[in-house]
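Colleagues,

Please find the record for the two-part complex below.
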Amino acid sequence: MSDITKQSLTELVENIKNKNLSSTDITKAFIERSEKSKELNVYITDDFTSALDKAKKFDQKPNLDLKLPGIPMAVKDLFCTKDVKTTAGSKILNNFVPTYESTVTENIWNEGAILLGKLNCDEFAMGSSNETSFFGNVQNPIDKNLVPGGSSGGSASALAGQLTPITIGTDTGGSIRQPASFTGTVGLKPTYGSCSRYGIVAFASSLDQAGPMAQNVKDCALLQEIISTYDPKDSTSIDFKRNQYSKKLNNNIKGKKIGIPKEYRVDGMPKEIEDLWQKGIQYVKECGAKTIDISLPHTSYALPTYYIVAPAEASSNLARYDGVKYGFRAKGENLIDMYEKTRSEGFGAEVQRRIMIGTYVLSSGYYDAYYLKAQKVRKLIKNDFDEAYKKVDAILTPSTPSSAFKIGEKTDDPVSMYLNDIFTVPVNLAGLPGISIPAGHDSKGYPLGLQIIGKAFDEQNILNIAFAMEEKINFKNKITDWWIE
Amino acid sequence: MSIDLKTIKHISKLSRISVDEKRGEKLAGDLNSIFDFIEKLNELKTNNIEPLTSIAETTLKLRSDEVKSKNIREQIVKNSPQDNEDYFVVPKVIE
């Protein structure tokens, strides 16, 4: 039974359908392994007892027509789950129990999956290392004292550590793709408007997207086709024809034109990343695709733009945490004092920093100089992509400028932490889909990812390119189980 | 540009986050380094550029305003730090 947790989602689904395994077998295996994996600190809240009950119930009357029949999975603690505590990694939501379910998770349970628990993440998804969580940092299964990336660090770590066969994260500036890259897993940030934001704790509403994380591209495609639905409950959800991504997955990418943007060759980028990128270029060529040098001239302005737009939206979204309707409340001498103390004690340092940046750039006298300016530059960044897509079908870049770093290495310098998202942030600003796939290891043996960026709503195309590349790369994650008790 | 303690106090008031002197100094330092980084945008001339206000280029759909969830008042109030049956309780606001 010990090899159950090593199986991919596709294998597990097959084994359930062929009755080689029951949902109870699988659920038990993941729970047992999770219980021996406390050191990774991936769970904020586990729901193991209830998961086992649901698995037993499933086995009594299995519906094998579902896409995730009796498959247990854990999700990022940013998704509201009805009657199961949802914290967003924050003290201020430490005791919040939603009365409703997010659309994305509802789609998953409707296909037969079972909730294992809620996974650690950076507080309100603000971070690139999972170190801003109120519930402590997460260990990367790749090596001790290594960050798993963030903000979906718990999701990436649980997936790479085989504590969940698949998972979901959210990505505002790279929060799915960067941790996927740091843990040797596959992560997709869908087109803005593809997956409903209903019931996801909001960070920056014009950038936030939920997306799948998986061990391989096929599993990722299957999960994407489940979570991507039009939802009237999200006013920015877009009604377009969605594919059965996993059924249409195709490794024939002959003749595809892949853009290589010269601006992604940033100063100080390690040679290992450049080498990996070159290898990626070689792989797509071997698959019969053509590479074309392109320019995205405003790339270097993406991060400064992001650090105005995202905190501005966050400061507005997080105004609701006032200690009145839910969550943590500090004692105050009067109402205003209660608000101020609640928010000062309830939010962590990074969240406070971002609320203050956001408040400042939106405040009287600074709005035009910062917020409006950033919205204009955001337009230029989107125009760059629109121009590029007149010539190419997709764009290939590294996912991150380095491999995973040590816990504590960047916590004192916010700007150096922000620079981690240099290759992922432009994709969010332009609302495009991007996927990170594991593509190799650095000299320390840590995984490195490559990112494929697509046209809006062209998830199928980047999944196909990823699928073709995956075959060529033949990546093997080096997991030693060092943390198992 | 430089953000001083006075500006921090102002932002702290606007964002309803109390900040003491010591944390204020640290925040001023952090925000200054972040704004130094953000100032890069001033290299670009953007006079004739339309701001991007919405990434999804669709018009918002209308729907009828119907109540979909029923009888969840109790559950909702239960999430509040302090309640009195059907009400949220806050510190006294009228003397």
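Chain A touches chain B through 69 residues (CB under 8 Å).

Comments are welcome before we finalize the supplementary table.
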